[in-house]
Design goal:
Blueprint lengths: L2 E5 L2 E4 H5 L1 E12 L4 H7 L6 E12 L3 E5 L6 H9 L6 E6 L2 E2 L7 E5 L10 H12 L5 H14 L15 H14 L4 E5 L7 H18 L2 E5 L3 H7 L2 E5 L7 E6 L8 H6 L3 H24 L1
Parallel strand pairs: 5-10, 5-11, 8-9, 9-10
Antiparallel strand pairs: 1-2, 3-4, 3-6, 6-7, 11-12
The protein binds adenosine-5'-triphosphate.
Length: about 290
Amino acid sequence: MNTYLSSNNLAVTKDNALNTQISLRHVSKVFPGRSGWFNKITGQTSSDFIAIADINLDIEHNTFVSIIGPSGCGKSTLLNIIAGLSEATNGNVMINGQIVNKPGPDRGMVFQSYALMPWMTVEENIMFAVETVYPNVSVTQQKRVVKEKIQLVGLTGAEKKRPHELSGGMRQRVGIARALAINPEILLMDEPFGALDALTRGFLQEEIERIWEQQRKTAIMITHSIEEALLLSDRIIMMTKGPAAGIDEILEVPFPRPRDRTTVENHPAYLKLKQEMEDHLYRETRAVEEARIK
Ligand SMILES: Nc1ncnc2c1ncn2[C@@H]1O[C@H](COP(=O)(O)OP(=O)(O)OP(=O)(O)O)[C@@H](O)[C@H]1O
């Protein structure tokens, strides 16, 4: 196997390159500091902030990838660039060989805050996404897709409810159904279970595993939970602390699929991987705290 690029401890092999779907090259993001009129009014200045620096990464088709790292290191910044919601200051993201410069129907996004339209019912929220992305598809077909996705996420019976009538877990089921309804090639999830209680979170993790087994879409998920990442992922990207955060290491998760919590937790590799992730997060978070004190 030939290595054609090596950066950020990441060696990309030619075998992987054949199956690469998402490709990041030298991606950096700098948020500009406050200046100009704001500076004149407040007397305060701040310099530019390098959130992420020189990230190189290849993600293969149909893999489930998690991103983990200390708080504020730049996980959402990275995901938003892949989503096309934010522009890289340097470098680029390619999906199937095309440069990403805006959001597209090939990417479905699930947010921690659900981002549902509060005045719309469950089915209207999902239909809105379908109509927007596929305006030329017949209404019958649009309705069929909405019904199918409602069934897939276990919301049958709640079609006419509005978000305020739903629990957090049910709202996120709508968020997942909406993202899948546009039939994206790639599912991007920014801490999708972050706002949920532990029990609901556990149920939804299992739902995502079940849905992923059925659909096998490429998925990129940000999470703060080591157990969640290990249950769902094929690869776990461990980011360093910011500023100028990068990729420290990528873990391969060897557990067979389909997965369930018990078999995953009893796998001989589980404890070692968990320990490695805990050590990484402890080390990076401690470095953040030390930098804050200095
Ligand atoms: N629009 C912005 N302007 C200036 N700085 C920003 C902006 N957005 C993010 N940042 C900074 O960039 C860094 C990375 O933020 P980001 O939200 O990507 O981190 P994160 O790893 O997703 O955080 P968390 O784990 O807390 O969700 C942070 O220091 C944040 O304050």
